[in-house]
Specification:
The chain has about 625 residues and is an alpha+beta fold. It folds into four domains: about 180 residues, Triger factor/SurA peptide-binding fold (Orthogonal Bundle); about 120 residues; about 120 residues; about 90 residues, Chitinase A, domain 3 (Roll), CATH 3.10.50. The protein contains 22 helices and 19 strands. Strands 16-3-18-17 form a four-stranded antiparallel β-sheet. A hairpin with a 5-residue loop joins strand 13 and strand 14. The two termini are about 30 Å apart. The N terminus is likely disordered.
């Protein structure tokens, strides 16, 4: 069971209540009346579990869950998520710690409580100092008296001391940290060979009838025909409207001119610009560059910049403004300046010339015509759509609609494997898969501007295909499975030879030697199980690694321990020590808290708990 007070953050009940109630305004439970004189939902030892603390914590956790999933969580949903039970465990654990702190006489003085109060932002005034009026008003609004709240804050601080003592007393065992670090940082030398069909003494031939039938019977899923839906549809696509499309040559030329930037690209330069505060500084830098005292990259670095920071990319002469003429006058890479820029005097490094490019109207016409034709066809289909929808709404059959509107009428046997023709469209596949026999055909748009409507004529359920129909596939499947089985057996033979003293590289297989290979490393085009097996084997060990469709033999030739004083091992030790220490501390604290609860005894008041829950609905 997870302890709700596993960390100090979770244990700060009072502080969290303040944040929730006073800063975010999420509460109000302090002022609510739960009926009668009930003030607690139970006890742990001599310590009562305050009813309002339970209500506040429960509301806070519900709102946290709402924020996490991005939508409101009502109380019934919170119960289904176990939030109420988690909160009960949390307040029980808090009461157990308070009870133990009282039992052993652990407390803090007034000065510590005063410091805690002064550090709560909700109680500070405009000057940042503690404001007693704000303090009183906030407590009054939430139903707290000053002594009551300060008592809770004192308990919280004492509880934190007790919790810190338990958590801080736990350390990761040095021996375990060392072993884990050594395990994680060791490297290995090993050899890997993949077995393929060509390595078998003879290829696997076709199966006899009995073996084929047995394979067929053992793999029904591979030979089952999916559900097939018999569908009739009408379809109108942009291509079908081609005869009705009329292109306007002048309109094409106008489109070309309107998009001239797509077809005519002016000459450009690859440019970097280094800006200086004054022209004198820029000129001095240019003189050093010309004298060979510094490179352009050196100059940029002196100004705290990398070349990537000052790269303008591909720019036209016009984009460079007043500096454009000088930069474009260069016929080879070089640096010019100082020249003006929007940011001040600058040096410009020209690194490449990109020639102007032009696509003439004649060269672009076919593409422009295709775009215009498709656009006009889509508009024609949109104009036809209203009439098609009216016909369908009036009860006309698909056959009647196709005849009257010139749509393509066709039938298709549709399944999850159908991808040709109209079935290539996602919209059609979705509609065909969801269609019911009682549905009336409806017009559905397609991504390319086309439209269709369909009718479900019948459904054939999934069925096992006869063996004669799938014989070739069954033979291929049996051969693949039998080949794999024989490769695994061959791997066992090779493993025995290696264990008898023959090096894996000397077995005649294509072998790959890997040296100083780190745990968790990756071998290209090889299943990860191979490297994982190499790190499970002892030095000199060999294994057959059987993965789907592939068989490997791996043999470990050496295991190398990392230098205990090396940076890698030291860093690994530090990480393991921190993680393991935290985990052990949390586990110890959980056991400690459970022990306190068991020794003190827990009593819960179901009626009081139900009263809080009723306020949540």
């Amino acid at each position: 069971m997870s302890n709700p007070l596993r960390s100090r953050k979770r244990g700060s009940t009072v502080i969290w209540a303040l944040m929730a109630l006073l800063i975010l305004g999420l509460g109000g439970f302090g002022a609510r009346n739960f009926g009668g004189s009930t003030r607690s939902v139970g006890t742990v030892g001599e310590r009562e579990i305050d009813l309002r603390d339970y209500a506040r914590t429960l509301q806070r956790e519900i709102q946290a869950a709402s924020a996490q999933i991005g939508q409101p969580v009502n109380f019934e949903q919170a119960q289904a998520l176990g939030i109420d039970r988690a909160v009960q465990a949390q307040v029980i654990a808090t009461a157990a710690l308070d009870n133990e702190a009282t039992r052993i006489g652990l407390s803090v003085g007034d000065a510590e409580v005063r410091a805690k109060l002064a550090g709560i932002a909700a109680f500070t005034g405009p000057d940042g100092a503690f404001d007693r009026d704000a303090y009183r008003l906030a407590l009054k609004q939430e139903g707290f008296g000053e002594s009551e709240f300060e008592g809770k804050l004192r308990e919280e601080t004492s509880r934190t001391l007790l919790q810190g003592a338990v958590l801080g007393a736990t350390a990761a065992p040095e021996a375990l940290v060392g072993k884990l670090a050594a395990w994680a940082t060791e490297t290995r030398d090993f050899t890997v060979a993949e077995l393929i069909a060509a390595d078998l003494p003879e290829p696997v031939g076709p199966p006899d009838n009995a073996a084929l039938k047995a394979y067929y019977d053992a793999h029904p899923d591979a030979f089952t025909r999916p559900e097939t839906r018999h569908i009739t549809y009408v379809w109108l696509s942009p291509e079908m409207m081609a005869e009705r499309v009329q292109l306007d040559e002048e309109a094409l030329r106008k489109t070309y001119q309107d998009r001239i930037g797509d077809f005519v690209t002016p000459e450009r330069r690859l440019v970097e610009r280094l800006v200086y505060p004054t022209e004198a500084e820029a000129a001095a830098a240019k003189a050093r560059l010309d004298g060979g005292e510094a490179t352009f990259e050196d100059l940029a670095r002196e100004r705290g910049l990398a070349l990537a920071d000052i790269d303008l990319g591909e720019v036209s002469q016009e984009a460079l403004g007043a500096a454009g003429e000088a930069v474009f006058a260069l016929d080879a890479p070089g640096v010019v300046g100082p020249l003006p820029s929007d940011l001040g005097p600058a040096l410009y490094s020209m690194n490449g010339i990109l020639a102007a490019q032009e696509t003439t109207f004649e060269e672009a016409r076919d593409d422009l015509a295709a775009e215009a034709a498709a656009d006009q066809a889509r508009r024609l289909i949109a104009e036809e759509s209203n009439g098609i929808e009216d016909l369908l709404a009036s009860g006309a059959t698909l056959e009647d609609v196709a005849k009257e509107k010139g749509m393509e009428l066709a039938a298709i046997d549709f399944s999850s494997e159908t991808e040709d023709g109209i079935a290539a469209y996602t919209a059609f596949r979705d509609a065909a898969g969801a269609a019911k026999a009682e549905d009336f055909p409806a017009l559905v748009p397609l991504d390319d501007g086309g439209v269709f409507a369909l009718r479900l004529d019948g459904i054939d359920p999934p069925a096992l295909k006869p063996l004669d129909e799938v014989r070739d596939d069954a033979v291929a499947g049996w051969q693949s499975e039998e080949t794999h089985r024989k490769l695994v057996a061959l791997g066992g033979e090779i493993k025995a030879n290696v264990e008898a003293g023959t090096a894996l590289a000397a077995t005649g297989l294509v072998a790959t030697r890997l040296g100083d290979f780190a745990r968790g490393g990756h071998i290209a085009d090889t299943p990860p199980e191979v490297a994982a097996e190499a790190f499970r084997l002892p030095e000199g060990g060999t294994a057959v690694v059987d993965t789907p469709d592939r068989v490997h033999v791996v043999s470990v030739t050496a295991i190398h321990a990392a230098d205990p004083a090396g940076d890698e091992v030291v860093k690994m030790r530090e990480a393991i020590e921190a993680q393991l220490g935290q985990s052990l501390a949390q586990d110890m604290f959980q056991l400690f808290t459970q022990g306190l609860e068991n020794r003190a005894g827990i009593r819960l008041d179901p009626s009081a708990i139900n009263a809080v829950h009723a306020q949540m609905n």
